[in-house]
From TrEMBL:
<feature type="binding site">
    <location>
        <begin position="12"/>
        <end position="19"/>
    </location>
    <ligand>
        <name>ATP</name>
    </ligand>
</feature>
<protein>
    <recommendedName>
        <fullName>Thymidylate kinase</fullName>
        <ecNumber>2.7.4.9</ecNumber>
    </recommendedName>
</protein>
<comment type="function">
    <text>Phosphorylation of dTMP to form dTDP in both de novo and salvage pathways of dTTP synthesis.</text>
</comment>
<keyword id="KW-0238">DNA-binding</keyword>
<keyword id="KW-0545">Nucleotide biosynthesis</keyword>
<dbReference type="GO" id="GO:0003677">
    <property type="term" value="F:DNA binding"/>
</dbReference>
<dbReference type="InterPro" id="IPR039430">
    <property type="entry name" value="Thymidylate_kin-like_dom"/>
</dbReference>
<dbReference type="Pfam" id="PF02223">
    <property type="entry name" value="Thymidylate_kin"/>
</dbReference>
<dbReference type="InterPro" id="IPR018094">
    <property type="entry name" value="Thymidylate_kinase"/>
</dbReference>
<keyword id="KW-0418">Kinase</keyword>
<comment type="similarity">
    <text>Belongs to the thymidylate kinase family.</text>
</comment>
<dbReference type="GO" id="GO:0004798">
    <property type="term" value="F:dTMP kinase activity"/>
</dbReference>
<keyword id="KW-0808">Transferase</keyword>
<dbReference type="InterPro" id="IPR027417">
    <property type="entry name" value="P-loop_NTPase"/>
</dbReference>
<feature type="domain" description="Thymidylate kinase-like">
    <location>
        <begin position="10"/>
        <end position="199"/>
    </location>
</feature>
<keyword id="KW-0067">ATP-binding</keyword>
<keyword id="KW-0547">Nucleotide-binding</keyword>
Length: 208
């Protein structure tokens, strides 16, 4: 039977620069075996449909939360669990830590409710490594404003104010403190090569 694969997630507030480094890490790990790149919300046809609603439709916080966990359940069953069982490495742009940070701390949802959904939907499945791109909300906002002219319109999360993103950042900090063996904090405030050097150091420390 194949050895179970590795599940690596990328987290951080909007503007933290995850996308650049997901691509770079994909290239680094490609020589080590098969990879699956995916994202949340999304990752399956059903979850991608829910993503469109989640990011662009008005709804209350509980509806938002239930949608993202419904998509996560399908994503786990259809993509993540089969890939890991086949020995593949899964790189996922956001996972449940984002729900705690955005819906829990950002929206003020009950963290106990979130924990119940987490256990119910994931049945104990957690990433093997979470790279948390930590960045002050004001610096992230400057980066979002500075994105290429003609890029897509900001979704309803990206339009939130600085206080919202500082609460989200605090949510990530709380999750990292609760699972230090899983989280690796990446200082995303520095230049791209310096961010990448931190990621390489984390991977080498784990023998990956």
């Amino acid at each position: 039977m194949p050895v179970a694969g590795r599940f690596i997630t990328f987290e951080g507030i909007d503007g933290a620069g995850k996308s650049t480094h997901i691509a770079a890490l994909t290239e680094r790990l490609a020589a080590q075996g098969e990879l699956v790149n995916t994202r949340e919300p999304g990752g399956t046809p059903l979850a991608e449909t829910l993503r469109g609603l989640f990011l662009n439709s008005g709804m209350d916080a509980l509806t938002e939360l239930l949608l993202v966990f419904a998509g996560r359940r399908d994503h786990l069953r259809q993509v993540i669990e089969p890939a890991l069982a086949a020995g593949k490495t899964v790189l996922c742009d956001r996972f449940t830590d984002a729900s705690f940070a955005y819906q829990g701390f950002g929206r003020g949802m009950d963290l106990a409710q979130l924990a119940t959904l987490e256990q119910w939907v994931q049945a104990g499945r957690q990433p093997d490594l979470t790279l948390w791109f930590d960045l002050p909300a004001a610096q992230a906002a400057q980066r979002r404003v500075g994105r290429e002219v003609g890029a897509r319109e900001a979704d309803r999360f990206e339009q939130q104010d600085l206080d919202f993103f500082e609460r989200v950042r605090a949510g990530y900090a709380a999750r990292a403190a609760a699972a230090p063996e899983r989280f690796a904090r990446i200082d995303a405030s520095v230049l791209v090569p310096e961010v990448w050097a931190q990621i390489v150091a984390v991977m080498e420390a784990r023998g990956w």
